[in-house]
Amino acid sequence: MSMRIYLAASVAGLSLATAMASPAAAQETTAAVRGTVEAEGAPVTGATVVITHGPSGTTVRTTTGSDGSFSANGLRIGGPFTVTVDASGYETSTITDLNLTAGQAFRLPIVLQASNDIIVTAANLGGALETSTGPITALGRTEIEGAASINRDIRDLARRDPLVTMDLSNSRTIEIAGNNGRLNRFSVDGVQFSDDFGLNNGGLPTSRGPVPFDAIEQFSVKTAPYDVAEGDFQGGAINVVLRSGGNRFRGSGFFTYTDDSLTGDSTRGRAVSLDFDSKQYGGHISGPIVRDRLFFALTYERTEESDPFDNGVGAGFSNQVPGITQAQIDQVSAIAQSVYGYDTLGQIQNATETDEKIVAKLDWNVTDDHRASLTYIRNVGTQQFQQNTFTTAPFALGLFSNGYELSEEVNSGVFQLNSTWSDDLSSELRVSYRDYNRDQTPFGGRGFGQFEVCLDPTSINAGTNTAISCGGSRLFFGPDVSRQSNDLNTENLSVDFTARYEAGDHSFKFMVGYTNVSVFNLFLQRSLGDFYFDSVADLQARNANRLRLGGAVPSLDPNDAAASFGTQNWTIGLQDDWQVNDTLQVTLGVRYDLFNNDAYPPLNPNFVGRYGFSNRETFSGKGVFQPRFGFNWQASDALIVRGGVGIFAGGTPDVFVSNSFSNTGLLTNSIDINRTNCAASNTCAGLNGVTGRTIPGEVGNFLATNVGSLALAPTNAIDPDLDVARKLKASLQADYEADLGALGDGWLFGAQILYDENLRGYTWTDIRSVPGGTLPDGRVRYRALPGVTGTNQDLLMTNSFRGRGIFGSLRVAKEFDFGLSFDASYTRSDVQDEGALTSATAGSLYSNNAFADANFAAYGRSIYEIRDQWKFSVDFRRELFGDNETRISLFGEYRSGRPYSITALDNSSGRLATWGTIGNGGRVLAYIPTLNDPRVSFDTAASEAAFNTLVTQLGLDRFRGSVVPKNSQTSPDFFKIDLHLSQELPVPVLGGAKIRLFADIENVLNLIDSDWGALRQVGFPYTAALARVACLTAATPTGTAGTVSTSTATNCAQYRYSNVLAPNEVLVTRQSLYGIRVGVRFEF
C-alpha cells in the first residue's frame, strides 16, 4: 500500500497516499483544475480548454483570461481526465492521465507551440501538482481493494494515517492527533455521518460504519484543513466519496467467510475458546442509463455473524454461573408463565449480529455546464447483549428476556448540483437529509418489569421478609432497568451553497450553510419497575420484597422525561486563493459558525436558589470566528513546502446539551420501597399481588406526589459563560523527491510538524461539592454545599483553557517499476490535556478522568498521547500468470502503549470520606510518600514494604513527597501486522471477466507465535489504584490501628494506605488473536 505525497514535477506520486495527515474539509466531494496557458513566454488569451472525464465522457469547457489563467470547478474525483488546449496560431496541447482528489485543486502550467502538437501525461508535465496547503492521506480504489480488513470496516483505512490511532479495546474508535474520536467529522458524499449525538465510542452511527467498501471511490483523512469549507470538527475530518457510474457497465460480487477455526486460540500462554462464524456477501454494479448523460451505481453488502454467549448454566457455556441449576431456571420460568403469564425465554444461547448496507447513486450531466447527483444511503445494524450475568460473586444469571437487541438504522439522501455560469463563475449547491434511529429492544418486549429472584434456600419466604439483599445466586427476567424506556432519534437537514469567482491570480470563494438537527432522546430507568423477590416462594406468592420505580412527574408518561430539542448552525465563509507567482500559492479565509437551540431545559428553582444562576443555558447565540491561512510553495522542481495556521471549532456531541434536558432535577422522580419503609408511604399493599405488568395505584401516586425530595435532586447544567470549544492548529511540511543513483529515482521524503492548541475545551465539575478542609498533602478536601444533604450531584459543563499537542513526522515512499511499492512513517507525539472526553453522560465525563484536586480534572499528559508510532506498508502487484494479477499487501504498525494514571482508592460509599466528593473513588491521583513520611501510614508493615517495592518497580521514586502526575505510566507497546493476499483467475467464457480469490489475515504475528501481537493495557478509565486510602483523625504509626474518619465532618490528619495492589494490565484477548477471512470475488 502506497501513501500519497504531493510533489512538484512528480505527479506520478498522486497515485499514492500521503504519509502524513493533513488539514482539509470533510464536506468536499469534488475537485478542481486550474492553470495557465503560455506561448513564447507570454500568456495566451482566449485559449479553449476542454477537460474530459474518461469513464463518463463528462466535459467541461472554459477559456483563458487576459493573464492566460483558467479554472474549472466541481469536477468528478478520480479519473483519468484528459485536458486539451486550443488557441489560434498554435497547435493543440493534450494532457492525459490526470487523476483528481476530493477537495483539492490540480494546477497545470501549459506551454503551447506553433509547430507541433503536444501530448504528455500529467505525470511528465513539469510543474504540475495538486495545490494542497497541507498533506492528506488519500486512498483510491486500488489501495482500498488491497487493505486487509476482516470486518470490512472503513476505520481500517483511517488507521493508515500517521496521526491516527485506532483503539482496538474501545469499539475501534479513531483518535486523530491526540483527540477523542467524538471530536472527528466523518462524511459521505458531503453528508455528515458521524455519531453526532455521541453515544457510540467508535464515532460512527453504527458499529461497522455506514457504507460498503465496494461503494467507495476515494477515502481521505485530514487533520488541520485551512480551506474555510472545512469545519465542524476539532480532531480530524474523514471523508468518503462514493463511486459513480460511467459509460461502461461494471460489476462485481463477493462472498467471504471466517469462523473460530480460522482464528487464533492462544495468546501469551492463555488458551482462548471461541465458537462463532461470520459471513459477508454483496455486490456492486454501475453503468450508463443514457450514455454520456445519466449514470447509476448501486452497492449492497450484508454481514451475518453468530457468536455464542460465554456465560450460563449447563452444557454449551464456557463459563458457568455458580449456585444456579437448570432445575431452578425451569422452576422460575414455569412460575413466570403460570402465575404472571410471562415467558422468560429461558437461557440466551447465541448472539447474532447483522449489518446491511445499501448505497445508490445517480449522476446526471444536465448540460456541459451543469451536473447533478442524487445519493441514497441506508445502513441497518443489530447487536445482541446479555444482561445481569456474573460468574464472580455476587453470582447472577440474566435469562433471555432480560437481554436486548441494539438496532441502529440510518437513512440518508443528498442532492448536489454543480454549475458553471461563465468562465469566471461557478457554484455548488448541496441539500442533504439524514434520519438516525437507535433502539434498544428487550428480547421479551416491553410491558413487563424486571424481576430479580433470590435462589438462596435460607431466605425467608413468608412474604413479610424485610430483606432486600440476597445471600445466594439470583435469576433475572423481564426487560432490564435501562431498557424499559430507551429510544433515540435524530434528524439532520443541511443546505450548503458555495460560489467561486475567478479573477486572474485570485480565486474567490463564498460559502453559506445551514444545518438543523432534531433530537429525541428518551432514557428513563425502571419506568416499568424493578421488583426483588427474596425467594422462589415469594415469587410464587406474588409478594415482592422491594420495588424501585422511576417515572416522569406528574404524568408518569415516560415520553415526558425525554430530551426533545433542536439545534441550528449557520455558517458563512469567505476565501481568496491567491496564485502569487508560478511557485507560491496563498490561501486567506475566514469562517464564522453561529449556534442556536430552539428549546431550553425547564427552569429548576431549587438549582437557582443554590447557585444564583439558571440551569437553562444552551449553545444559543454562541458563535466562533475562525480565520485561516495556508500556503503552498514549490521551492524547486523536487521540493514543496506547505503549511498554515487556523482556528477550528464544532463537532461537539449533542449529548452534551441533551444531558441538561434529561437531568433537570424536575421532570423525573424515583422511589425505593421495601417492607421496612413502605408503611410510611402507605405503599405496602403495592408489594403484594404483583403482576409485573402494572404499577399499583398507591405506588404510582406516591411517585407522582412525593416530589419534596426533588429539592435535592441531581441536576446537569451548562455554565452561562461557556464558550464553544475551539482549537488552534498550525502545520509546516516539506516534501522532497530524490534521485538516489543506483537505488533509483522517485524516492519521496517528507517531514511535518503539527501544533494543536486547545483554546477552549470542555470539562465537568460538581458544584454541589465545595472546599471544606485540607488533606495531609495540602490538597483540598471537599464537603457538601452548606444546607444540602444527600449524595446527589449538580454537574456543571464548563470550559477548560489548557491543552496542546505537538506532533512530528518523518516519512519515505517509493514505487518500483516491477510492481513493488512501499512507504514508512514515524510520528512522535507530545499531548497534554485537562480532562479527556471519555464518555457521553455528565456523570461519566466527570468520574472517568484522573483528578489531582478531587473535584477538577487534572492537567497533564493525555490518555490520547501515543508517544511513538511506526507505520509501514508494502504492496506487490504483478501479473505473474498471464494477465492475471497476483497481489500481496502488508500493513504494520508498532506503537507505544496507552498512558494511565496512578491513583489512590477511597472505597467509602456516598460522599467519599477522604476526598469529600461523590462518584468514582479511584480517580484521584496518589500521593507518593517519602520514607517515614508523617503524612502517610500503612495498616501493616507488610503493606508498606509492598508499596515501596511497587513504587520502585514503577519508577515512581522521583515523585516521593508529591502527588504523582497524571498519566505518568505507559502500558506495553503494541505491534500488529495485517496481510492481504489475492490472485486473479480468468473466466474465458465471459470475456474479460475475472474471479479473484483472496484472504485477509489480521495480526499475522500471533499466527507466527502465540506470544506475539498481544494488546495489553490498563483498561478504561485508564487509572490504577496503587492502594486503598482512608483518613485518620490523628497521626498513627504504621501497623497501629487508628481512628478512621468516616465523613468530611471529622479531621483528616494522616492518610492510611492499605490493600496495596499492582496495576492490572489487561490482556485484550480477542484483539490479540490472529484472524483469517477467506473470500471470492467475481468482476466484470
Q: What is this structure's SSE topology?
A:
Blueprint lengths: L30 E9 L2 E2 L4 E6 L4 E6 L5 E7 L2 E9 L6 E8 L4 E7 L6 E4 L7 E2 L6 E4 H5 L9 H4 L5 E4 L5 E4 L8 E4 L2 E2 L23 E7 L14 E6 L7 E10 L6 E2 L2 E2 L5 E14 L3 E15 L2 E2 L6 E2 L5 H15 L9 E18 L2 E16 L10 E3 L5 E17 L4 E18 L7 E5 L19 E4 L8 E18 L2 E18 L6 E4 L2 H6 L4 E7 L10 E17 L4 E14 L7 H7 L11 E12 L4 E11 L5 H8 L5 E7 L22 H9 L9 E4 L7 E13 L8 E20 L2 E6 L5 E5 L9 E7 L2 E13 L4 E15 L7 H6 L11 E3 L6 E14 L2 E12 L3 E7 L21 E2 L7 E3 L2 H13 L8 E2 L5 E2 L3 E13 L7 E9 L1 H5 L7 E3 L4 E10 L21 E5 L6 E3 L7 E9 L1
Parallel strand pairs: 1-8, 7-9, 14-17, 23-24, 27-31, 30-34, 41-46, 52-60, 54-61
Antiparallel strand pairs: 1-2, 1-5, 3-4, 3-6, 6-7, 8-10, 11-16, 12-13, 14-15, 16-17, 18-21, 18-63, 19-20, 21-22, 22-25, 25-26, 26-28, 28-29, 29-32, 30-31, 32-33, 33-36, 34-35, 35-40, 36-37, 37-38, 38-39, 39-42, 42-43, 43-46, 43-47, 44-45, 47-48, 48-49, 48-50, 50-51, 51-57, 52-56, 53-55, 57-58, ...
Describe it for me?
The longest helix is centred in the first third of the chain and has 15 residues, at 326-340. The chain is built from 10 helices and 63 strands. The model is unreliable at 1-26 (pLDDT under 50). By secondary structure, the protein is mainly β. It has a 22-stranded antiparallel barrel. Strands 27-31-30-34-35-40 form a 6-stranded mixed β-sheet. The two termini are 24 Å apart. Helices cover 7% and strands 47% of the residues. Among the domains are: 25-131, Sandwich (Immunoglobulin-like); 138-251, Beta Complex (Ferric Hydroxamate Uptake Protein, Chain A, domain 1), CATH 2.170.130; 899-1072, no CATH class. GO terms for molecular function: siderophore uptake transmembrane transporter activity. It is found in: Cell outer membrane. One of its GO terms (cellular component) is cell outer membrane.
